[in-house]
Amino acid sequence: MRVGGRVEWFLEPTTPEELRSAVISCRERELPLRILGGGANLIIADGLLPGVVIGTGRMNRLFRIDAAVDGDTNPEGEQDPGAWSAEPSGRVAPADPSIDPRLVGWAGTTLPSLVRTARDLGYGGIEGVVGIPGHLGGGIAMNAGGRWGELWDRVELVRVIDEQGEFLDLTREQVQPGYRNSNLGEKIIAAAIMRFEPTPKPLIEQRMRENLRAKNAVQPVSERSAGCVFKNPDPELSGGRGAGQLVDDCGLKGRSMGDAMVSPLHGNFIVNRGSALATDVLALIDQVREEVAQQTGIQLELEVKRWLG
Ligand SMILES: Cc1cc2nc3c(=O)[nH]c(=O)nc-3n(C[C@H](O)[C@H](O)[C@H](O)COP(=O)(O)OP(=O)(O)OC[C@H]3O[C@@H](n4cnc5c(N)ncnc54)[C@H](O)[C@@H]3O)c2cc1C
Description:
Blueprint: E1 6-11, H1 16-28, E2 33-36, E3 42-44, E4 48-55, E5 62-64, E6 102-106, H2 111-121, E7 123-124, H3 136-142, E8 145-146, E9 149-150, E10 155-161, E11 167-170, H4 172-175, E12 188-195, E13 197-198, H5 201-218, E14 224-225, H6 235-238, H7 243-249, E15 256-257, E16 260-262, E17 270-272, H8 278-296, E18 305-307
Flavin-adenine dinucleotide binds at residues 34-42, 56, 107, 132-135, 137-139, 141-142, 144-146, 188-189, 219, 221, 225-227, 305.
């Protein structure tokens, strides 16, 4: 969104182990702690944010599971979970990538690089993520998704740092992720193992083109935004209308506050037209929420996260 102020401390670990050390240090000192992925779903308040932000941008590491150094191979020839690191030169393109179509990604892997790598390896099932900005850790935390499904559909195992500062590996069944919510609470995502469907590359490319075309047609993807502001309400309450449709039906597209504006293209996006302040964006969100509630009786729930200091 390109709004918001500064933070007292900004830490940039480069490995899951460094991330864990940083988390433990902050907790020992009882400092407020926040985790920043790509910042694609965040609105950060103006001014100085107290405490520590740990950014995952330098934990941008993605490799095939058979390049991992600390996993064992099971009788089916598949790498066992527990394979969380690779040599710096860890292979991404082996002779036959379909043997074990899994990738290990650290939290800072960007979603666009994940989609590109999967395409290059002939790994299908993640084409819907095309055009979604952010990091793997943020994507898993938010359970990013769309009509195509959600990121958690591909996650076999997630490595988190738990409330005690220990690594803990969790399956989808253990986590029970929901709509735009991973249900991980205070746990911090360090890495994930994802499983794909071996798929012909031309088919993957075709699906990516279709998904991107559909997204570009309805979302202001090239403008500064934080993605969808509100979660879609229960269709029974809204008559099947999504949050964007409700905002549109209430005549709020184009409504602005300073340089923050409800996108004329998609009612669920607020865009920064240049020099919006976080205060403008937050006030506009409140205004939209109130008007939608007044006109329809529906209380929209926020999808974006706010860091209010
Ligand atoms: C143009 C545009 C299009 C978008 N399209 C979509 C879409 O189609 N579908 C969709 O679902 N979203 C969409 N989004 C929203 C956004 O891209 C996703 O939610 C993305 O997954 C956010 O990832 P991030 O790394 O940027 O998270 P951030 O914005 O950095 O963080 C989001 C939340 O996750 C937490 N978090 C981040 N990393 C971790 C971690 N390692 N461990 C624990 N918590 C963490 C943060 O503390 C914060 O609470 C879009 C956004 C934009 C700007």
